[in-house]
Amino acid sequence: MNIRLFARLVLPLALLGSNPPAVAQPVPDAPKAPPRLIVVISVDQFSADLFAEYRQHFTAGLKRLSEGAVFPSGYQSHAATETCPGHSTILTGNRPARTGIIANSYFNLDTTRADKQVYCAEDESIPGTDRDHYIVSPVHLLVPTMGDRMKAANPAARVVSVAGKDRAAVMMGGHHIDQVWWWSGTGFVSFSGVAETPLVAKVNAEAAAILSVDRATMSVPAYCMPHDRAIPVGGFTVGTGRFARKASDGRAFRASPEFDAAVLTLATRLVDDMKLGGSGQTDIISIGLSATDYIGHSYGTEGLEMCLQMGALDRAIGLFLDHLDAQGIDYIVALTADHGGHDLPERNRDHAFPAAQRVDAALTPKAVDAVLRAQLKIDRRLIYADSAFGDFYITKDITKKQRAKALKQAMTIYRASPQVSAVFTRDELAAQPAPSGSVDSWSLAQKARASFNPERSGDFIVLGQPWVTPIIDPKAGAYVATHGSPWNYDRRVPILFWRKGMAPFEQPLAVETVDILPTLAAQIGLGVPREEVDGRCLDLDAGSGDSCAGAR
Ligand code: ZN
What we know:
Layout: H1 3-16, E1 37-43, H2 48-54, H3 61-65, E2 69-75, H4 83-90, H5 96-99, E3 105-107, E4 117-119, H6 146-153, E5 159-163, H7 166-173, E6 179-183, E7 188-189, H8 198-211, E8 231-233, E9 236-238, H9 250-254, H10 257-274, E10 283-289, H11 291-299, H12 304-326, E11 331-336, H13 345-350, E12 357-358, H14 365-376, E13 383-384, E14 390-394, H15 400-416, E15 420-425, H16 426-430, H17 444-450, E16 460-464, E17 468-469, H18 488-491, E18 492-499, E19 505-506, E20 511-512, H19 516-523
Parallel strand pairs: 1-10, 1-11, 2-19, 2-20, 5-6, 5-10, 12-17
Antiparallel strand pairs: 2-18, 3-4, 6-7, 8-9, 11-18, 13-14, 14-16, 15-16
């Protein structure tokens, strides 16, 4: 470019600029004293992709957290990216192989239960229970949580956990929780035998009052308008919802911003009532916000519904943090998700992704079981599994030879499908070392190994191809989209840390949700033996200081 042209284009711009030149500020010292309250927020199904898409629009709580220590490529590193395993990693520092939480439910063929199915957050040894009528318990979680470790170090530390889902509350809270509450469908409840406190009764009455009246549609900000387009799925459409709701429609309440607001209301009241962060020691509250997940499942991730939810979530978290500020509490926040997610295939195909598809009905466990019965000429249930992808168990009620044949035939069926990317036997996974190296370049076998627990995993594990949604034919009101795969859209989640006064920085390289526990433990000088966790401490000091120094 010649000088004259350069002058014509650039000089006027320079003359227009009235801002003083930026002067580099020294990085302030990180706060030295331990925070008095640790706030851990899990936004169910808040993928790294949603964070990236909506980050520009955040103005409140999520904006604040986006200006702390930002890890936009956090990983739930394992293969079975479901809610219970994901929540089990966030505050234990361990992957599901060690937390023992391999899936939302798994099969135990040795139980006397008819369905042989075990829910991750229940105690199935209690008589009269089944997968649908269970007693909530942390017994399956094999490792301590942050709260468990804090209480062991100082019994005065208060541990509180609230969530939309029982499994989120229990897996983040752990084995020694002072107060744990989750939404039952009509109100917040706790472990069997724990009575509703006056505070919770009041919050439940307020929630019931909200639920008992119709809800008007939400107004739509300009940036959400392009999302407002009906997508046909079977005999109905999604994509244009504005969260209008009839009185007492609990299902619609759950899949709407109202649900997160209810959980954050309870969290706020518990902070006040218990004076969390107001005593000599550090306390912890974990908060599981489940609405994003129900909305993702019900409407997909790229419609008007999710756009409205992202704005509401930002505002609701903002109000909660503002309240903590007003109480003068010195707190640190960690926010992440239990897994990611992706959109329904019907809209993905409209949006430049023709390969997106739904799973072939021939791959369901029921269909494959029927084929096996015919092949082996055995008229009884041979395989136990709850989806086309995941852990498969072969019945023990046949001979060893028949079992070996059933296993071989079943794996042959899955391996032959173009919708299947890999099938591993339990022996193959058991022989592997725990995965190491950069989590964003793990092999499928390494991801499956991170989900593998020898006591609980199946006889073989089926992993689908990318962009195959394991929901065959959604009916109106049922889920249209899901997560659970070993692919990065389901594994990648943001990890955000924020504390007042900290110098912000962004680290786009891959880290893991199992790094959260060692990172927070170092903040309060809590010793965690390295060999007890899969994660590592992340240095939250943007400058030359090292917030992990005491933990090394
Ligand atoms: Zn989830």
